[in-house]
Amino acid sequence: MRLLTTEPPSTAGLLRLDNTADVRHIALDGVQCIELHFPKFTDGRAFTQAVLLRRQRGFTGTLRATGDVLIDQLLQMQRCGFDEALLRPDQDAAHGQRLLRHFSGFYQGDAQQARPHFARAR
Question: Which of 71, 66, 80 minimizes the C-alpha distance to 100?
């Protein structure tokens, strides 16, 4: 996961979504990057949007978390399918990278690896 401390310039193919948007019915033609917004760190609707975009919609472009993004949330964001996170200004990106490397794998399936550990080929 890439951690951003400043907002990248807008590019063609960028879609910014509010956390109330129903991602099951949005047009994705030509969309290369979707920004999902966390208005407060306690509001997790963007996690659900990310999982729906990856699993149900098959979106393979970049998913970026914006808003009230804390390093404590990064691991779950990565597991839900986020590629990038624009950190809140008071967050330490280096510490966030260390947190992302803390676990080498997971037993449960997620957006990156849909099959649980026991079902993977050995």
Answer: 71
Rounded distance, CA 58 to CA 25, Å?
Answer: 13
How far, in Å, CA of 76 to CA of 73, rounded?
6
Across the range 5-29, mean pLDDT stands at: 91
Domains present along the chain, CATH in parentheses: 2-119 (3.20.20)
In whole angstroms, give the CA distance from residue 121 to residue 101. 23
The C-alpha atoms of residue 7 and residue 62 are separated, in whole angstroms, by 15
Backbone angles phi, psi at 16, to 5 degrees: -100, 125
* pLDDT at 115 > cutoff 80: no
| Other CB atoms within 10 Å distance of the CB of residue 56 | 10
CA distance 21 to 19: 6
Assign 62 to helix, strand or coil: strand
Tokens representing residue 95 in the block: 């510490």
Predicted TM-score (pTM) of the model is 0.85
Is the pLDDT higher at 42 or at 119?
42
